[in-house]
Amino acid sequence: MARPKIALIGAGQIGGTLAHLAAIKELGDVVLFDIAEGTPQGKALDIAESGPSEGFDGCFKGTNTYEDIAGADVCIVTAGVPRKPGMSRDDLLGINLKVMKSVGEGIAKYAPNAFVICITNPLDAMVWALQQFSGLPAEKVVGMAGVLDSARFRHFLSVEFGVSMRDVTAFVLGGHGDTMVPLARYSTVAGIPLPDLVSMGWTTQDKLDAIIQRTRDGGAEIVGLLKTGSAFYAPATSAIEMAEAYLNDQKRLLPCAAWVDGAFGLDGMYVGVPTIIGAGGIEKVIDIKLNDAEQAMFDKSVDAVKGLVAACKAIDPTLA
Ligand code: APR
């Protein structure tokens, strides 16, 4: 059987890292697309030349024309601009919305059967716009945010508890922004929920609150350190986890920015929720029960996402 084809739209920091990870994991043949001439070609060649030492096979192509993504099984979108210190993800909206229009049209024309993972920020609004511009089925267009936010939460928790990250599970819902909702009750160390670990005296509520806030600020912390751009290793790894779930029909239960219509009392919008990813794309949205405090945080996050979508519609009336 032919190798799957993975198209990476945007060959910047995240795009290059995605290509390298896809190569090392032998997920398929990789096409790197970017408007910058030379960048995708250079990265594709550089990665191909790492194959003999690393020991992987695959074709790696850099391109500036959408035709080359034809028939892609998976498209991962990072085209656009990242934030700089002092900027919020929402500050990127105007520029990146235009980028989503051209990317959506390119995917619709050349890769209409792909599973599309959007990473471009502000995530929840951009994945919505990408689905609108591309016209692909909503279950095939998804945003990468919850896997990354949960990974950050898991990392901080593993350091706090002094246990392997493998034994820490964490749940982060809502929009990929300051209003994201890290759910302590549904986050565990080897199955023991975080509130129980506080009761057991393994940590304190204050420390847990600080970790939750650090998770919310996780992207900004990296932007502040890097100064010239935003995080790229962990965002790329998170999207590859989602791509693998689709390509290998793994039925992974992962938090993603998915189209939610009915669940969580929502009537049609993109926001971070638990989903099952398999060969059908987003096969299910898991409608978990929230307590009053969690629901209030989730509602606030939903409102923030709705505000961003309204801002998109104001900029581009064709989206209304
Ligand atoms: N079509 C294709 N590629 C584009 C377009 C476009 N219309 N506009 C910009 N690009 C390319 C740029 O040339 C650049 O190579 O997108 C790439 C973005 O790469 P970086 O600037 O390195 O940004 P990166 O760190 O990869 O982040 C990309 O993901 O997490 C989000 O906030 C982040 O929105 C940002 C995106």
UniProtKB/TrEMBL annotation:
<feature type="binding site">
    <location>
        <position position="89"/>
    </location>
    <ligand>
        <name>substrate</name>
    </ligand>
</feature>
<feature type="domain" description="Lactate/malate dehydrogenase C-terminal">
    <location>
        <begin position="148"/>
        <end position="306"/>
    </location>
</feature>
<protein>
    <recommendedName>
        <fullName>Malate dehydrogenase</fullName>
        <ecNumber>1.1.1.37</ecNumber>
    </recommendedName>
</protein>
<dbReference type="InterPro" id="IPR011275">
    <property type="entry name" value="Malate_DH_type3"/>
</dbReference>
<feature type="domain" description="Lactate/malate dehydrogenase N-terminal">
    <location>
        <begin position="5"/>
        <end position="143"/>
    </location>
</feature>
<dbReference type="GO" id="GO:0006089">
    <property type="term" value="P:lactate metabolic process"/>
</dbReference>
<dbReference type="GO" id="GO:0006099">
    <property type="term" value="P:tricarboxylic acid cycle"/>
</dbReference>
<dbReference type="InterPro" id="IPR022383">
    <property type="entry name" value="Lactate/malate_DH_C"/>
</dbReference>
<comment type="function">
    <text>Catalyzes the reversible oxidation of malate to oxaloacetate.</text>
</comment>
<feature type="binding site">
    <location>
        <begin position="10"/>
        <end position="15"/>
    </location>
    <ligand>
        <name>NAD(+)</name>
    </ligand>
</feature>
<feature type="binding site">
    <location>
        <position position="96"/>
    </location>
    <ligand>
        <name>NAD(+)</name>
    </ligand>
</feature>
<keyword id="KW-0816">Tricarboxylic acid cycle</keyword>
<feature type="binding site">
    <location>
        <begin position="119"/>
        <end position="121"/>
    </location>
    <ligand>
        <name>NAD(+)</name>
    </ligand>
</feature>
<feature type="binding site">
    <location>
        <position position="34"/>
    </location>
    <ligand>
        <name>NAD(+)</name>
    </ligand>
</feature>
<dbReference type="InterPro" id="IPR015955">
    <property type="entry name" value="Lactate_DH/Glyco_Ohase_4_C"/>
</dbReference>
<dbReference type="InterPro" id="IPR036291">
    <property type="entry name" value="NAD(P)-bd_dom_sf"/>
</dbReference>
<keyword id="KW-0520">NAD</keyword>
<dbReference type="InterPro" id="IPR001557">
    <property type="entry name" value="L-lactate/malate_DH"/>
</dbReference>
<comment type="similarity">
    <text>Belongs to the LDH/MDH superfamily. MDH type 3 family.</text>
</comment>
<dbReference type="Pfam" id="PF02866">
    <property type="entry name" value="Ldh_1_C"/>
</dbReference>
<feature type="active site" description="Proton acceptor">
    <location>
        <position position="176"/>
    </location>
</feature>
<feature type="binding site">
    <location>
        <position position="83"/>
    </location>
    <ligand>
        <name>substrate</name>
    </ligand>
</feature>
<feature type="binding site">
    <location>
        <position position="121"/>
    </location>
    <ligand>
        <name>substrate</name>
    </ligand>
</feature>
<dbReference type="InterPro" id="IPR001236">
    <property type="entry name" value="Lactate/malate_DH_N"/>
</dbReference>
<dbReference type="GO" id="GO:0030060">
    <property type="term" value="F:L-malate dehydrogenase (NAD+) activity"/>
</dbReference>
<feature type="binding site">
    <location>
        <position position="152"/>
    </location>
    <ligand>
        <name>substrate</name>
    </ligand>
</feature>
<dbReference type="Pfam" id="PF00056">
    <property type="entry name" value="Ldh_1_N"/>
</dbReference>
<keyword id="KW-0560">Oxidoreductase</keyword>
<dbReference type="GO" id="GO:0004459">
    <property type="term" value="F:L-lactate dehydrogenase (NAD+) activity"/>
</dbReference>
